[in-house]
């Protein structure tokens, strides 16, 4: 398990997850992700799952936990490029409306309210 | 019966990936599709994590056993622990129910297992342990045999 966080304009955190996200992995990365994103004037988290090979319900806990932290600032969450199996897991968990297919640039524009077309 | 395996390990979270690797090799002969394989791995991951986290509180001592049998394109798996057991199985299986919200568990494990498995059974007794048994059929596209 590995991850990368890139901040845009101090407001948008793009988190790229790599490898396998299970209970073991979430326990290792949660605190650090949480600390990093709570710096700045964060209002959006974009989770890019393109390079994530596996995720179980621990991923739901991780994303919901950060959504709760964003709630205080009315922040938003975008889940980018989930696999078919992950899509189903998000659907069961009531997170279907947060999924998006596209590039990080698309998601950032979307987050800033600039939607093409 | 075409193949059978048993894997036992102590209740530490590192072993969640061990269980997934073993079970992935076990079904490799069936040439599963990417989606079939990832759904299968997810069920195993959920059941094994539950045994480690809830059954044994990650005590590093309790033994989790994964037993798998393959019969044609049908695979049956039993994940067993001798941990603290479940007092009310029906309640535990409700979507969003978790006894460890403080750990950011989502309570979606059983719902995901039930949705991805063809058949799932949970037997549990407080202070005795839990067995989660499921089957999954693999429809993987079969290549015509060249003789
Ligand atoms: N092997 C087990 N031993 C004891 N309790 C368990 C076991 N598996 C599940 N449970 C109980 O069932 C609940 C629901 O499990 P699950 O749906 O996987 O959600 P979560 O793991 O996120 O809590 C757990 O919170 C726990 O109370
Ligand atoms: Mg669980």
Automatic annotation (TrEMBL), chain A:
- Report a single Gene Ontology molecular function: anti-sigma factor antagonist activity
Q: What is this protein called?
A: Anti-sigma factor antagonist
Q: Which PANTHER family match?
A: ANTI-SIGMA FACTOR ANTAGONIST TM_1081-RELATED (PTHR33495:SF2), ANTI-SIGMA FACTOR ANTAGONIST TM_1081-RELATED-RELATED (PTHR33495)
The organism named in the record is Ureibacillus yapensis
Q: Which family does it belong to?
A: Belongs to the anti-sigma-factor antagonist family.
State the source organism's domain of life: Bacteria
Q: In this protein, which residues make up the domain named STAS?
A: 12-95
TrEMBL record, chain B:
Could you state one GO biological process linked to this protein?
negative regulation of sporulation resulting in formation of a cellular spore
Start and end of every Histidine kinase/HSP90-like ATPase domain?
Answer: 35-140
State its Enzyme Commission number(s): 2.7.11.1
The keyword Lipid biosynthesis appears for this protein: no
Superkingdom, taxonomy of origin? Bacteria
UniProt keywords (A-Z) are: ATP-binding, Kinase, Nucleotide-binding, Serine/threonine-protein kinase, Sporulation, Transferase
Q: What class of enzyme is it?
A: transferase
Function (record text): Binds to sigma F and blocks its ability to form an RNA polymerase holoenzyme (E-sigma F). Phosphorylates SpoIIAA on a serine residue. This phosphorylation may enable SpoIIAA to act as an anti-anti-sigma factor that counteracts SpoIIAB and thus releases sigma F from inhibition.
Question: By what name is this protein known?
Answer: Anti-sigma F factor
């Amino acid at each position: 398990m590995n991850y990368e966080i890139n901040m845009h304009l101090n407001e948008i955190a793009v988190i790229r997850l790599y490898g396998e996200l299970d209970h073991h992995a979430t326990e290792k990365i949660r605190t650090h992700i949480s600390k990093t994103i709570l710096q700045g004037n964060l209002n959006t988290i974009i989770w890019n799952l393109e390079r994530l090979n596996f995720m179980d319900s621990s991923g739901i806990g991780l994303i919901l936990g950060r959504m709760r932290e964003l709630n205080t600032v009315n922040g938003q969450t975008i889940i980018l490029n989930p696999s078919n199996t992950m899509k189903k897991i998000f659907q069961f968990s009531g997170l279907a409306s947060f999924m998006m297919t596209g590039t990080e640039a698309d998601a950032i524009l979307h987050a800033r309210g600039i939607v093409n077309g | 019966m075409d193949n059978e395996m048993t894997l036992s390990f102590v209740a530490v979270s590192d072993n969640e990936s061990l269980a997934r690797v073993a079970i992935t090799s076990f079904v490799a002969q069936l040439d599963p599709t990417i989606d079939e394989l990832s759904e299968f791995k997810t069920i195993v991951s959920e059941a094994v994590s539950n045994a480690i986290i809830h059954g044994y509180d990650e005590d590093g001592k309790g033994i989790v056993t994964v037993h798998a049998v393959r019969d044609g394109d049908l695979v049956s798996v039993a994940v067993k622990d001798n941990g603290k057991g479940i007092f009310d199985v029906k309640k535990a299986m409700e979507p969003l129910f978790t006894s460890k919200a403080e750990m950011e568990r989502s309570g979606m494990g059983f719902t995901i297992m039930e949705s991805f498995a063809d058949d799932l059974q949970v037997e549990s007794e407080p202070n005795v342990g839990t067995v989660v048994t499921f089957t999954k059929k693999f429809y993987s596209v079969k290549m015509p045999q060249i003789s």
